[in-house]
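Troubleshooting entry. The earlier prediction with guanine gave an output that would not parse, so I re-checked the input for stray whitespace and re-submitted. Clean input:
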Amino acid sequence: MKIIDGRETARQIKEEIKAEVAAIIDSGKDSPHLAAVLVGDDPASQTYIGGKEKACNEVGIISSVYRLPAITTEKEVLELVDFLNNDDQVDGFIVQLPLPDHIDENKIIQRIRPEKDVDGFHPVNVGRMALNLPAYISATPFGIIELIKRYHIETEGKHVVVLGRSHIVGTPVSILLSRKTNPGNATVTLCHSKTKNLADVARTADILIVALGQKEFVTADMVKKDAVVIDVGIHRVPSDEAKSGYKLVGDVKFDKVSRKASFITPVPGGVGPMTIVSLLSNTLKAARKEIYS
Ligand code: GUN
């Protein structure tokens, strides 16, 4: 069994991005600029935004964060999106999800100009991705594909089973791996809450991607010997061993499943660190106007 080291891969990609940002600056152009909108005080969102700011600083990307109170109206968020759409200083921006209940997420996402939608959530980017046209690919699926690439994991002709059909992970990763590309060319089964005999389906996977959001859901009996297991889940559980009083676990029971898998991503240190570097990579593409030229 081989551990897929997302932390080390993310570190390498950050170095690559840093060199590319330096080259942009050396050529006399402005540093790439990523903006983020955070509405309310969801702790997970604050952590993500903090991580994003830190990563931007490390590679030389300008980062700005618009922090708005939870009572901000939908109209005010739309106005900020319009402002950022038209701000030539900003190459790309994200609106952190989830938004408070009184704000319609779809309405906000659809207001972002696709050219600046470095999260790849706008229907134009999702559609372009599905059609294999240049598009911003959202951060977590992009990170998963990058790990598959850098670990030389063959996907062509393989059976990929994706557990979970979220718009952020399951649906896009299933589209990406079924495309006529490399990585891609896989036969993909997308499982969800209405799937019958999910464990039986999971057991047929050469590559199992788990993005259900259920703590340690996948057990060793659900995994074929020598399968590749990608765990997208992240959960805090109380732990006496850790100084903080908690530890992080994924959607996969790592100890047992890792004995059966050929490759596996740990939690923490697997998919997670790849997410933010994927956003940096999309910001670089935005600054170079690579996707929409
Ligand atoms: N919430 C959880 N993941 C993400 C992400 O990748 N982007 C945004 N905007 N919100 C999120």
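This one parsed fine. Residues 70 and 281 are 30 Å apart (CA to CA).
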